[in-house]
Specification:
alpha+beta, 24% strand
Length: 130
């Protein structure tokens, strides 16, 4: 009788541990993705190229880390490219990734978790705009 009462509670605790582990692993996997994308974007020659490079770099980094995101959003602030060469400028990249949790299969638990990472990388002050 006691086992019949405690078994559902034990299963629920185990499911919560699995969800917590999945969130922690996903959070660790997304850490640094924006940094990679920001570094790659800072090497671009224009703000348009920086946005394209950052998006491709972030998507590639997430795929290489086996982080299965249902929705990846990469936001690039490349306004630093408007500054004159010789002045301080930077590129900021924000990566948002939604990780699905619904495949764990416990009723009533949240279906997804949104993870975020942001990084800034300086532009080369001696960059050539030609």
């Amino acid at each position: 009788m006691e086992l019949a009462i405690l078994l559902p509670v034990g299963i629920l605790v185990l499911a919560m541990l699995v969800i917590g582990a999945r969130i922690a692993l996903a959070g660790g996997s997304i850490s640094g993705v924006a940094g990679i994308a920001a570094r790659d974007a800072s090497l671009a020659r224009s703000s348009i190229a920086a946005q394209q490079v950052a998006t491709a770099s972030a998507t590639s980094a997430l795929a290489s880390r086996d982080l299965h995101c249902s929705d990846v959003q990469v936001t690039v602030d490349a306004s630093g490219f408007n500054n004159a060469p010789g002045s301080f400028a930077s590129v900021t990249v924000a990566v948002t990734c939604t990780v699905e949790l619904s495949d764990i299969g416990v009723a009533g638990l949240p279906g997804s978790r949104t993870l975020r990472d942001t990084a800034t990388s300086p532009l080369d002050p001696a960059r050539d705009l030609s």
